[in-house]
Amino acid sequence: MNLPENLRYSKDHEWVRPQAGSQVVRVGITDYAQDALGDIVFVGLPKIGSTVESGDALGEVESTKSVSDVFAPVSGKVVAVNTELESAPELLNTDPYGDGWICDIEISGSGEVESLMTPEQYADFID
C-alpha cells in the first residue's frame, strides 16, 4: 500500500497535503480507498467557494461497485477543484496522490492537519 510520508490521513480514507507557506491543503482519497472502490467511473466535485466542516460530505465517487461520499478531512473553504476528474475519473485509480487530487481547501482553524493520522498511524488503522 502506497502511503506518502508528506501526507496526513483521515479515518474516512482521505489524504491532506499542506501547501508550503499557506493555509491551503490539497485533498484526495487514499490508495487504499481507490483500491477498495474498484474502477472509478464518476467523481462529483465540490463547488469552489463552498464552506465545509470537517466530516461533512465534500463530494462523491462512483465506481463499478458502489457510490461513496468523500468527506472533508478539515474545515474551511474550497478554493480549487480538479476539473480533470470530470473527463478522466480514472485518475483516482491510477494516480491517487498526484493527478487524482480532488480539491484544495483553505483551512479555517488551526491544528486540524496535525490532528490527522500520520502514515504510520493510518497504516495501523487499515491493517
Count of individual helical segments = 5
Strand content: 25-35%
Question: How many strand units?
Answer: 9
CATH superfamily, please? RNA polymerase II/Efflux pump adaptor protein, barrel-sandwich hybrid domain
Rough outline = globular
Helix fraction bin: 10-25%
State Rg. 13 Å
**How many structural units, i.e. domains?**
1
What is the CATH architecture term?
Answer: Beta Barrel
Mean pLDDT: 95
Biggest sheet statistics: 6 strands, antiparallel
**CATH fold title:** OB fold (Dihydrolipoamide Acetyltransferase, E2P)
Show unreliable segments: none
Category by helix and strand content: alpha+beta
Strand adjacency order, main sheet: 1-2-3-9-8-5
Function: The glycine cleavage system catalyzes the degradation of glycine. The H protein shuttles the methylamine group of glycine from the P protein to the T protein.
Organism: Ferrithrix thermotolerans DSM 19514
GO biological process, one term: glycine decarboxylation via glycine cleavage system
Domain Lipoyl-binding: 24-106
Describe the structure.
By secondary structure, the protein is of the alpha+beta class. The chain has helices at residues 31-37, 84-87, 91-94, 112-115, 119-126, and strands spanning 8-9, 14-18, 24-29, 40-44, 51-52, 57-63, 67-71, 76-81, 103-107. It has a single domain, classed as RNA polymerase II/Efflux pump adaptor protein, barrel-sandwich hybrid domain (OB fold (Dihydrolipoamide Acetyltransferase, E2P), Beta Barrel), CATH 2.40.50. The protein has 5 helices and 9 strands; from the N terminus they run βββαβββββααβαα. Strands 1-2-3-9-8-5 form a 6-stranded antiparallel sheet. Strands 4-6-7 form a 3-stranded antiparallel sheet.
